[in-house]
Amino acid sequence: MKKWIALCVAVSCALAAPVPRAQTWPQRPVKVIVPFTAGGNTDTQARIISERLSAALGQPFIIENRAGASGAIAAELVAKAPADGYTLFFSATPQVSVVPLVQKVNYDPLKDFAPVSMLGTNAFVLGVHISVPARTLGEFIDYVKAHPGELSYSSAGTGTVGHLTAALFAARAGLTIIHVPYKGAQAATDLVGGQVQMYFGPAADLIQHSKSGKIRLLAVSGEKRAPQLPDLPAIAESYPGFRTIVWNGLLAPAATPKQIIDRVAQEVAKAAREPGTIERLNKIGVDALGNTPAEFAAVIRSEAPLWRDAVNAAGIKQE
After folding, report:
1. Which of 131, 176, 224, 256 has its CA 20 to 30 A from that of 143?
2. 23 pLDDT higher than 60
């Protein structure tokens, strides 16, 4: 009888013993805050990885779209959220590396977030209207130089990655070309229509129009050629050091336990290696990555000087 009582006590103690937090997390649904409206590139990636995390971790990862102020509203919400692993931020490059340079924000992009893992990256593609008599990047640069101030380029808004990429390219190449800001998809629409002559946009926005013969694709903004467009040179081949990409990945409030961050990062890395995920991302012009928290943090640090140069090239002053 004494042995039985002792066994029961031992079992009870074992069951009552504290379990490391990382093992018990998540015990309820996790919110994934997305800084843009539903249906766009970032939102699509957020849904791909949230679906994968839900399956792997046994709790729903629920998307909440909190658009506004170029993503600053969503970023501030996450920065002030409890650091318990139940609020994550599926951010894009602008909220961390660009927006704080061009407008006042109520968060510190380096101190208020813990990088988890980038799901994917994509460079921008330089598209020109078919009326421009240039078939290569070099020919386009020569043409713009021969017609200073006569050509224009569109963007999805002042201070967007597309705008800053174009401004940095113009500065590096010594071009005088007029910026015409739009809101959203109209920037690509007016390139196709010939109202503007140049536009830097996601491959998914431009490839279909290139195939129809309405625009011509000349280069990509990454440091190397894009797998989806291997025949297009990288601008860096002509201007070493030129590199603008958009990354999308998960961040957590800064004090989130390391065990949780590492667990999520491991699952993102697994998902990024799966053929199904790779295929889904490739369809929207994104290269799967799935890096570590340390690698993610290193990317953020390394790209900071380039974005400062781009903001200066665009002549943008912080509001």
Report:
1. 224
2. no
DSSP string, 138-177: HHHHHHHHHSTTT-EEEESSTTSHHHHHHHHHHHHHT---
Q: pLDDT digits over 232-278, tens only?
A: 999 999 999 999 999 999 999 999 999 999 999 999 999 999 999 99
Number of Cβ within 10 Å of residue 232's Cβ equals 18
- Residue recorded with tokens 């421009």: 132
CATH of the domain at 232: 3.40.190.10
CB within 8 Å of 308: residues ≥ 6 apart: 101
Domain boundary among 219, 237, 255: 237
Tell me the pLDDT band of 185, cut-offs 50, 70 and 90. confident
Asked if residue 304 lies in contact with residue 114, where contact means CB atoms within 8 angstroms, the answer is no
Q: Tens of pLDDT along 129-172?
A: 999 999 999 999 999 999 999 999 999 999 999 999 999 999 99
| 52-78 average pLDDT score | 97
Q: Nearest 5 degrees, angle CA 301-CA 158-CA 196?
A: 120
Residue where a domain terminates, one of 213, 237, 261: 237
Residue 222 domain flag? yes
> In degrees, to the nearest 5, what angle opens at C-alpha 39 toward C-alphas 100 and 234?
60
3-state secondary structure of 99: helix
CA angle 67, 163, 307 (to 5 degrees): 90
What's the start-to-end Cα distance of the chain, in Å? 77
Beta strands in 226-299 (DSSP E): 245-253, 287-288
**Segments forming the whole domain that contains residue 72:** 22-122+246-314
Global pTM value: 0.86
Question: 76 is written with which tokens?
Answer: 């501030």
Q: For 172-274, list the strands marked E by DSSP.
A: 178-181, 198-202, 215-220, 245-253
Rounded CA-CA distance 84/21 in Å is 10
Q: Does residue 181 fall inside a structural domain?
A: yes
